Fold these 2 entries.
Entry 1:
Amino acid sequence: MRYLEIAGKRPLCGELTIQGSKNAALPVLTACLLGDGPCVIENCPQIQDVEDTLAILGMLGCKTSRAGHTVSVDASEAEHFAIFGAEAQRIRSSVLFLGALLGRMGKAALPYPGGCAIGSRPIDLHLKALEELGVRFSDENAPEGCGAGIYASVFHLKGACIRLPQPSVGATENTILAAVLAEGETVIENAALEPETEELCRFLSLRGADIRRECGGRIRISGKRTLKPVRYRLTADRIVAGSYLLAGAACGGEIHFCNLPAGQLLALLEILSRMGVAVGEDGTMRAQGNLLAAGNVVTAPYPGFPTDLQSPLMAALCFAQGESRICETMFENRFRTAAELRKMGAEILTEGSCARIQGTKALHGADVRAPDLRGGAALVAAALAAAGRTRIQGYNYIARGYEDICRDFQSLGADIRLADCRDEKVW
Ligand code: UD1
């Protein structure tokens, strides 16, 4: 029921600290299930996807608590293996409990995962990789009363050599979560290189797992019998940082990022430099408000340009001089943001997986709806740079990944507020 109201066309100036990474927090929290004793996770963002993950851990019998950005998970008394419930259906990353539950309990029952409707999002690669570790999938394992879902069991997880046909982030993480407690050695070829996958490996290594990243996308894991509890601090969220950089580019201004994960954003920084936006080594972004077009941009697995920043980039390019082209290679429904941007006066033509964005001098405020999480952040960026008032419905999508987008942009001088439309006419 909540919506954002933004009065745009103000430069963004000030200092920002970026929240902890969502896509690292979710697998790291899931990996807390793989051993007894309390794991303490610091810098854990206060976002809906994290709260849903903690609720699932609670459902399994883990003790969880939160004090500000520090979360504690103790899986010593975890005893359940079924995670049917609204939370598991809501988030895509609930599928990671498959690998973790199989590692911990030898069985798992979960609904098909939810998440943003950005494409068909199959999980065939997850299932095939786990099958190679000895997992069987069958409805015969369904506990009474559970509906359609994934039912898996394994007598004994055994290491194997697995080649992923494509470097899926989720399939890589699921395989790692199952393999760390499997007997013998597992090799994952063509594994995802995303920093969040690296972060899961770092966390598990600290817990005592034997995981080595070899050349290219090969990960070698020697299974261990137990893992120990640890304290771990999550790094800054590169996608939140990237979307704020793009909002700053669209609005113009000067933003100092206290903890910019610049090394994880090289593809974006290269495009920003083409657009005439400078980001210094000290984490300060300076944009004059006269953006240049970006030429051709193609989304790709890390270290390529991230699909999660495609919509925020599209929003910024609406304000650039000249034509830019974006090719989306990962998720087929990620151009739905274009239709909302057009309501604000954007000139965007989409055809299949390609979009042509003709920069215009100015966009104007409008009533729009966030189509998904990153599309929502893109509309916020466009609204901040557009003339007039914009109202953005679908705040719940944005809250899945941004701790407090109003607080962050208000601290940079933006006119943005969260409102409740319960008492207003639906628009
Ligand atoms: C993760 C991220 C998401 C990001 C995406 C790509 C999390 C919680 N989410 O999602 O924010 O946009 O990586 O960087 O970390 N695929 C298959 N079969 C499978 C699995 C994937 O065909 O079994 C395809 C997908 O349809 C997609 C591509 O592989 O085209 C990449 O997907 P994947 O890397 O698995 O993304 P997610 O892990 O879902």
Entry 2:
Amino acid sequence: MITPLIAANWKLHKLPSEGVAWLETLLRELPSKAHEHVQILLNVPATHLAPMARLARGTPVALGGQDLSAHNEGAYTGEVSGAMLGDAGASFVIVGHSERRTLHGESDELVNRKLKAARRNDLVPILCVGESEAERDAGEEALAVVLEQLRTGLRGLCVSESSALVIAYEPVWAIGTGRTATADDAQSMAATIRSELRTLYPAVADSIRLLYGGSMKPANAAELLSRADVNGGLIGGASLELDSLLAIVEAAG
Ligand code: PEP
């Protein structure tokens, strides 16, 4: 039995002080037993981690970063290392989000180095993979794109425990657009990813968490999360509002 992971991606939203106030309310309103059925993770801007992590200590809410440097330290102005994220209170980090790939030109090779940097620093990476609209329209190409992102992204990465890796299938055309993959499409791609993981990590593949991301919201969460290989969600827009995040947590439980 896999505990679902409901992971917020706040992107470039909210101030640190607003994040703290938001988390205070979340912790007050979270049903007391919710965490027995669902793990809740907030991937917030790096500036928010330390104050929010202080508040989250000893609660069922985990914190994560949205990106990290492939380097440990050095002359890399503007970068944030895995060690810095961990020290500030992160236990997870998103790697290879499509916005990083598209807006910052991140290649599968760089994503691979970032995944290794995350593991070196005991952070659980959430590797994002997903095809563009044109690739989806080209049928088979969507599968090839996702498998390539997976194979190159994970090359040489040692995973001996299922809790050390999360994969998020995020079709690019569904992110922030209001369009969602059907539950059948999400399950079908998740099953393909699972099958590839069985080749890469046979001992643990069946319990690695696979998330769906792309306009998940209260109205479609239960349906998406009902599928066997959809073990949670990576949620952008709908994670900014407390009520909608709580509704998704409830749908997952
Ligand atoms: C995301 O940013 O990973 C995402 C899925 O965003 P949204 O839920 O807004 O589509």
